[in-house]
Amino acid sequence: MQPLPRWALLSSGSAPVLLVGGWAVAGALQRSGYDPLTQTISALAGYGAAYRWIMTGVMFAVGACYAATAAGLRGVAAPGRIALACGGAASVLVALSPEPAAGPTLRHTAAAVVGVVALAVWPLLASERGPAARWVLRPWLAAAVTGLCLLSALWFLVSLRGDGPAGVAERLVTGLEALWPFVVVAACVRGRR
C-alpha cells in the first residue's frame, strides 16, 4: 500500500467529532420541542430550527472530510474510495437541501439515501483479499461493517415510518459511518510503522 498522508488521519478523525459535536451543540441550542430521541439530525438544519447554520456547516464539513479521506486512502480499492467520496458529496447535497418545517423534500431524501448507502457499502467495495490484505480491509470484516451499517439504516427507515426512535437510529447509522473511515486510516497508518 502506498503511504497515507498524515492529513488523512486529521480528515478521517474530524468527521465523527464534527458530526457528534455538531448534533450535540445544535440540539442543545434548540428551543423547546426538539427531541433527539425521535427527531432527525436534518431537523437541526431545517428551516425553523434555531441556529440551523451550525448543523448545515457541520454537514458541509463532514462531507469535505469524507472526500479528503477518500483522496488520502491511496492504495485502497478505487470503488471503495469512490463510494466514500460519493458519501461526502451526498452530505454536501443534504446540507444544500434543508428540510422545510412541513417535512423532508424529495431532493433532501434522495441525497440522504445516496449518502447513507454509499457510506454503508464503501467498506465492502474497499475490501482486499490475500495474505497481504490489511485486517480492516479483509472481506469478512468489511462485510460485517457494511451489514451493520445497512441494518442500522433499515432500523432508521422503519423508525421513520412508525413511531420508533428515529433520532437514535439515525445517530447510530451516521455515527458508525463517520467512525469507520478513521478506523481504516488509523489501522493502515499503524500497520505501516
Automatic annotation (TrEMBL):
UniProt cross-references to Pfam families, sorted A to Z: DUF998
Top-rank taxon: Bacteria
Coiled coil start-end: none
InterPro entries per record: DUF998
Keywords assigned: Membrane, Transmembrane, Transmembrane helix
Stretches that traverse the bilayer: 50-73, 80-97, 109-127, 139-160, 172-189
Keyword Signal part of the UniProt annotation: no
Identification of the protein by name: DUF998 domain-containing protein
Lineage: Bacteria, Bacillati, Actinomycetota, Actinomycetes, Kitasatosporales
